[in-house]
Amino acid sequence: MERVDGRRPEQLRSVKITKDYIKFAEGSVLIEMGETKVICTATVEEKVPPFLKGQNKGWVTAEYAMLPRATQIRTQREAVKGKISGRTNEIQRLIGRALRAVVDLESLGERTIFIDCDVIQADGGTRTASITGAFVAMVLAMHKLVKAGLLERIPVRAWLAAVSVGKVADSLLLDLCYEEDSQAIVDMNVIMTDKNEFVEIQGTAEGYPFTREELDSLLDLAKTGILQLIDIQQLVLGEEYAF
Amino acid sequence: MERVDGRRPEQLRSVKITKDYIKFAEGSVLIEMGETKVICTATVEEKVPPFLKGQNKGWVTAEYAMLPRATQIRTQREAVKGKISGRTNEIQRLIGRALRAVVDLESLGERTIFIDCDVIQADGGTRTASITGAFVAMVLAMHKLVKAGLLERIPVRAWLAAVSVGKVADSLLLDLCYEEDSQAIVDMNVIMTDKNEFVEIQGTAEGYPFTREELDSLLDLAKTGILQLIDIQQLVLGEEYAF
Amino acid sequence: MERVDGRRPEQLRSVKITKDYIKFAEGSVLIEMGETKVICTATVEEKVPPFLKGQNKGWVTAEYAMLPRATQIRTQREAVKGKISGRTNEIQRLIGRALRAVVDLESLGERTIFIDCDVIQADGGTRTASITGAFVAMVLAMHKLVKAGLLERIPVRAWLAAVSVGKVADSLLLDLCYEEDSQAIVDMNVIMTDKNEFVEIQGTAEGYPFTREELDSLLDLAKTGILQLIDIQQLVLGEEYAF
Amino acid sequence: MERVDGRRPEQLRSVKITKDYIKFAEGSVLIEMGETKVICTATVEEKVPPFLKGQNKGWVTAEYAMLPRATQIRTQREAVKGKISGRTNEIQRLIGRALRAVVDLESLGERTIFIDCDVIQADGGTRTASITGAFVAMVLAMHKLVKAGLLERIPVRAWLAAVSVGKVADSLLLDLCYEEDSQAIVDMNVIMTDKNEFVEIQGTAEGYPFTREELDSLLDLAKTGILQLIDIQQLVLGEEYAF
Amino acid sequence: MERVDGRRPEQLRSVKITKDYIKFAEGSVLIEMGETKVICTATVEEKVPPFLKGQNKGWVTAEYAMLPRATQIRTQREAVKGKISGRTNEIQRLIGRALRAVVDLESLGERTIFIDCDVIQADGGTRTASITGAFVAMVLAMHKLVKAGLLERIPVRAWLAAVSVGKVADSLLLDLCYEEDSQAIVDMNVIMTDKNEFVEIQGTAEGYPFTREELDSLLDLAKTGILQLIDIQQLVLGEEYAF
Amino acid sequence: MERVDGRRPEQLRSVKITKDYIKFAEGSVLIEMGETKVICTATVEEKVPPFLKGQNKGWVTAEYAMLPRATQIRTQREAVKGKISGRTNEIQRLIGRALRAVVDLESLGERTIFIDCDVIQADGGTRTASITGAFVAMVLAMHKLVKAGLLERIPVRAWLAAVSVGKVADSLLLDLCYEEDSQAIVDMNVIMTDKNEFVEIQGTAEGYPFTREELDSLLDLAKTGILQLIDIQQLVLGEEYAF
């Protein structure tokens, strides 16, 4: 099966990560995966949420949003509706949880890294692009803390990236664009480290259940995509950002 | 390792499903898994959401809540806070999505099955108990439609149940109670059919990533639990409810 | 006139109070009056609202809600609407006010008894059943404080119960079920102590005003019902809970 | 006991009702009871709420609010808090219910009388003053409908007024001002017609229950106040407004 | 062109300012400009907003609202909608900003003057009437602080009033009533001091842009109106309130 | 006085307008004025708000927001606070009003141009940059309607741009950056057409009133800036977009 944009089943879209995209943020990137574009910023706050006070640990949390015309049809602003949708909530909880899984919160000290992922153009895979970009923005912000003498080293235990995989008709595909995603009968988001370990797996049958064999093949596909994304992250950050 | 309540690692808590628990609902159960107790009701509405109008298809949707004193420490009502939490949103979206994966929405016709899962006592695994109970409540409500001549048969393609598995210290455990859940370093909810197919997998590393081998073992453990739960569902419903 | 469920005009529905119904709450009951079923819990909090700080007095407050399928037609959740209805507000203010009228707040000390009344099945008289049940849950929670040595005695001045009375067609009836309530032309809720004293009277003409003589007869009817309810409360609690 | 403002126990405060106080409303009054001042307006809307559509009946409903500096200490606006308080809800439901009890909704036809009671100065008894004033504003608006040929006669079955009574220390008092109200141990609002019939009785024990004898005396006291208020209403409206 | 109410183009409506209109407020007026009537109160609070703490400066802030039947067609309450409209927000920010421009916040000390402007009848120019009235209410409240020995003198640098001007058809008009305002093609609100200085100019083309010459003429017209309003303010306050 | 970024008093910051910046919107630009960067999109909706239905007229409306890290200190999302701030409301009302002043709404037909201005980096002058950019995005969207044969010509009567001017210390400055804006004692936003006509003037004294002479000089300064901005708009759009 030919994919809608001519890619091979196991091929990522073209990926571009522009670092220091927003002047005022401690860390920031513009990540582009095909036509999906997300601004990720990392803000350092010298305090932690109430439930962590006095525990000598830090925190990483995230918020996610889309500009109204990121989408083909204009989406109403959540600020206008007066509340965050269920979908937004799920995504921002996922981003924060994934990043925390690779951060050494004790070494971070009593401070919070506040991640903002704002989708300015949406063509599928916005949550996985957000995680891949947010990881870089977070490392950039942590590096500033190191340079300022506030941290000894970047308190991260592994590189982290995310990608979607899915079953469309009879094909298993890597990195679904919007058109593919809307036809998928299995939809899976996988978040992994550079050590081939899982941080989160979310696999959903859209109408039809899937077998253990399909699950295994999708996880293999995700792994190849994630290793490529981590290569790009390392290239963008350069050797200075080792951990 | 001895579990806190003396169970073996691969042992479910005692399960009890009481059908027709609420007089006015078209379908209802009280499901008890150990100390976790959830009232699940199914309401039939002879209309569908706007996005489905005129498509000759039905819909299944769900809401989830906890009574304030379901928990050890009283939890503030979401109605008082004026908004649904991110956690609640995630859970109710999950319940609806899982049930829809085994329902033949075309055969259901232009009507909605509205599921309510209200936790009256919470000791871990409330979302998986909700799904296992909600499936039974939904089938009870559909059976009423069959008896009333509105449906030819119960429009369900497979039996469905859900269970949690996780890694606590070095042990892989089935059906975590609250105390185990709060110490787990891997936490996974698995929803499967009686045909050994997956409807949803949500695996999360709480602080430490997990390997492919651990994933495989956890999925095996989940499968044994789900088959037992489906046996209980079938016993409760009896032969009249075949599909 | 024969009542819809065959009762005599001055007859209560069958009443059942199950104590310690919810494991985690300091005090709890399930109260059933005919088909009306309410879970009442009492939570002890070792603080008082801001307006009482430093006054050496305690507080009793209440919240009330209904599960969506407590009713014949599914009711939308207030958490989904994002606000508490006027009816809910009136009822929970009434429950709190009634309980405070018989509690010695000075003896309670600087702590709050937080009452939750959650209707799981509604067939009329939910607010009066809530008060009758909440009183028992509150006493159970206070008794725990006595056993823990935090209070010398249960700081309650009188037994308290509530019942509805009303005029349906030409009959004055005790303890209206939903069908009677919806046809009543006078509707009255009466809250009294075991000493024949009033704590609250709320009488409303639904369309047609009522006379002083009707008022007097309805109050007599309420009194007989309340004394029976207090007998049941005393039986459930047993002699250990004297005050 | 001398009352704080020198009145006798059974004496109303000075009452003044100014009709047509707001130019644009179909009916309006400024009612002053001592220092309590309320603007009551009645708006005619040529439609009914959804639950009444097609039933050839009208509706009367009410909203109540206070200006922030109606009170001694500035009160935060409910619009700023983003929600209506429980107290406001109770009061506006009471006003609407009381007026409906004397209106012939069938004769009113499919239209709504929308009452607004806005307290500009609050010195106790704002809900009873609102009802007494709202009745006059409603009749003024109905009279306009009669003059416009839309109604044959004012569709009201009885005159209606409201007053508070209460027990302060050992005295039973009529028409409590704020200072008295805040010390009352029994607080009762009574709404009656000119035919000595009750439309609503709300009696509350503030801390201490009250006896049947006290109830009887308070109702007698309320009756004398209400008859005086109805005299004033009749004087203000004049003979043209007979019904 | 004859104006709808017979005024000359450069003529104000009849203006009346009644001081001490609300008993409980530290400062209050009822200001009437033609049929527009606004209750303005000033409340003194002995604290400042968080962003000013510890700076030895005071603050002046304002809220604005309309009674539902201030307008010809009933307006829904913002408390019922659950949020403040954009228009209300703009007006209350404007009132606060304008008053602060003539107040010596350092001399005021760490206290806040809280202004409430509640329109009870609206016939155009409610925001400018609010400012003109609020200035007087504020001075009255400050004068109480002087009399109480809390301030040495009224901390105001200039008299302040506001008026609307506009272009209706071909005429430039002072102090537009509602009917004129709704037809205006240029609409301008001007706030000035007694020293002929501007505090705020807001000029808006309603559909058609305006020229520099028109701007100049409108500002001249506004100036004559404002000087008359300040004369009235001085007359109402009397010599005691000099600053 | 040297300006903080070395500009002359009457010098604009460097301006860049990138058209078709967002793929899915009917019209879009990224406008950069110095470090201030705003994404402006125009969405065409084939319907009008209820108050315009059936009048054969179109509408232009706008929403404005900032990404949380557009600012030096992270700003909380309005969607999280659950409401739009007063400042946001003022700005989006201003943008819509300004654009409508130069659009021929009759020629636009019964459709709405929905403008979104999202500030991704904020260094002062975000509302004026939004208007200058939104005008271009709107014309791009209208041009698509012309090309699609839905409009005969672009229904715009004049070019439109906006700029800020202000008084900082003793200097009158054009196009204030954030640091200048925060020190300004007079702050003015001016919106003009290419025909030297005003669409909106908003001048505010920040603490100290300003004179008629200062007003005149500021308006002259604004005019020179606006003419340069319109030149840039015309260059970006090219001759194809004449109207």
TrEMBL record, chains A, B, C, D, E, F:
Residues 11-141, 161-224 form the Exoribonuclease phosphorolytic domain. SUPFAM superfamilies: Ribonuclease PH domain 2-like, Ribosomal protein S5 domain 2-like. Its EC number is 2.7.7.56. Phosphate binds at residues 87, 125-127. It is an enzyme of class 2 (transferase). Phosphorolytic 3'-5' exoribonuclease that plays an important role in tRNA 3'-end maturation. Removes nucleotide residues following the 3'-CCA terminus of tRNAs; can also add nucleotides to the ends of RNA molecules by using nucleoside diphosphates as substrates, but this may not be physiologically important. Probably plays a role in initiation of 16S rRNA degradation (leading to ribosome degradation) during starvation. Belongs to the RNase PH family. Homohexameric ring arranged as a trimer of dimers. This is Ribonuclease PH.
